[in-house]
Amino acid sequence: MKIDLIVVDMDGTAVQYPNKPFSSTWDALQVILSEEEKIEWINLRDFYVGKPDLYKMWFNKQVALLKGKSVSDAERVLFPIPYSPGFLDFFRFNNCFKKAILSSGVDLVVKKIVEEASFEYYLCQNLEAHDGFFTGKGLCWNSLDKVDHLRALSTHFRIDLNRACYIGDHPSDIPCFESVRFPVAFNPRNGLEEYVVKTGISSIHDFRELKQILY
């Protein structure tokens, strides 16, 4: 094994929800909204996409639409998790390295992945709930800071990033790719394809392909 730490993005990487264009946990949640709320949900997403400096504003407005909605209804939409090909096969019983998730996706799914695939650490967006219903509030972190959290993970586990692999699917993951020795693009899209061709970093479509790269 060449590495001691694997850090994985979630939406579009670890999981593939059947919604376009982002295959994300966020867009999956719109199913529990009214038709009018769904339109507002999508409009908010499309307005704020590509504006990471306004991420917290988007988060607060988006989460407010969930107020009063049932957590159990959300769980019926989100579970079972539509894992990307080979994800569980590679991670579930593979404990010869530390495993972490850095995601702007929702905590309901991240916590389930941590449980089902034995991950040691996660960072995600948290949706507040009370008595089984969303309050319309939550706690978020800005994915612009992802590379800083990656470095903090390296310090926490006392593992140099030269012994780390980062796996993501979006151009926003590039700072993390450039911080580790083993960057891996999963189904690269939204412009990441050009970066993969330019840099020659590894690209996979099934997590079982990691064995060829990391062993």
CATH superfamily: HAD superfamily/HAD-like
**Poorly predicted ranges:** none
Order of helices and strands: EHHHHHEHEEHEHEHEH
Helix content: 25-40%
The CATH architecture category equals 3-Layer(aba) Sandwich
Descriptors for this entry?
215 residues; alpha/beta; Rossmann fold; seven-stranded mixed β-sheet; 10 helices; 7 strands; 20% strand
What topology does this entry show?
Elements: E1 5-8, H1 25-29, H2 35-48, H3 55-64, H4 71-78, H5 87-91, E2 98-106, H6 107-117, E3 121-130, E4 133-139, H7 146-157, E5 164-168, H8 174-177, E6 182-186, H9 192-199, E7 202-204, H10 210-214
Parallel strand pairs: 1-2, 1-5, 2-3, 5-6, 6-7
Antiparallel strand pairs: 3-4
Helix pairs in contact: 2-3
Written description of the protein model:
The protein is an alpha/beta fold and 215 residues long. It has one domain: Rossmann fold, CATH 3.40.50.1000. 38% of the residues lie in helices and 20% in strands. It contains 10 helices and 7 strands. The protein has helices spanning 25-29, 35-48, 55-64, 71-78, 87-91, 107-117, 146-157, 174-177, 192-199, 210-214, and strands at 5-8, 98-106, 121-130, 133-139, 164-168, 182-186, 202-204. Strand 6, helix 9 (192-199) and strand 7 form a beta-alpha-beta unit.
